[in-house]
Amino acid sequence: MVSKRIVLFASGSGSNVENIAHYFKNKPNITIAMVLTNKKEAHVLDRCNRLNISAMYFNKAAFLKTDGVLRVLQGLEPDLIVLAGFLLKIPQNLLDHFPNKIINIHPALLPKYGGKGMYGHHVHEAVKAQGEKETGITIHYVNENYDEGAIIHQAKTEILESDGVATIAQKVHELEHIHFPKVIEEVLTNS
């Protein structure tokens, strides 16, 4: 089987990155080529160091106003770019160069609770405030608009009346860890 390469983008602690790395550890046909982050202090860099995964920091200007990150990606030749807790909007130059090769995970059942500013606890607070009976995750292709790309996979979890925002977040995080690596593998296998 032909080896596939993924590049991960992350902005935070990197728990999804670590989960994905563990999932693919014994699958030699899929390699994490690099992790890229827009936050110098992001804990994902510590995780990458511990996991012996190449990682690189870039600043927002380099990402949005130059082709610097695009050139790095071209050199890595990824089969798939995975946004694993990455908060910046993907610029047009990357979308043009990697059509249908960038996927994202969102902590809600899109199209509800998506768009600019809807990430992390903001999503869970909104879900709780609206009295939703269920929430979940959406894995989708990335396009020029936040959280509007074609949906690849959704998974749901029940919300109990007694569930607080932290409990909702924990339930969603569990879904991310169960489904995200498997869906990445399916997308790579079918591409």
Question: What does it look like?
Answer:
By secondary structure, this protein is of the alpha/beta class. Helix content is 39%, strand content 23%. It is built from 7 helices and 7 strands; from the N terminus they run E-H-E-H-E-H-H-E-H-E-H-E-E-H. The chain has a 7-stranded mixed sheet, with helices on one face. Strand 1, helix 1 (15-24) and strand 2 form a beta-alpha-beta unit. Helix 1 (15-24) runs parallel beside helix 2, helix 1 (15-24) runs parallel beside helix 7 and helix 6 (120-129) crosses helix 7 (165-189).
Residues in helices, as a percent range: 25-40%
**Spans of at least 5 consecutive residues with low confidence:** none
Percentage beta strand:
15-25%
Number of strands: 7
Radius of gyration: 16 Å
Number of helices: 7
The pLDDT mean sits at 95
Query: Whole-Å distance between the termini?
Result: 13 Å
Task: Sum up the structure in keywords.
191 residues, alpha/beta, seven-stranded mixed sheet, 7 strands, globular
Summarize the structure.
With 191 residues, this protein is an alpha/beta fold. It has seven helices and seven strands.
Write the layout of secondary structure elements.
Layout: E1 4-10, H1 15-24, E2 30-37, H2 43-51, E3 55-57, H3 60-65, H4 68-76, E4 80-83, H5 92-97, E5 102-106, H6 120-129, E6 134-141, E7 151-158, H7 165-189
Parallel strand pairs: 1-2, 1-4, 2-3, 4-5
Antiparallel strand pairs: 5-6, 6-7
Helix pairs in contact: 1-2, 1-7, 6-7
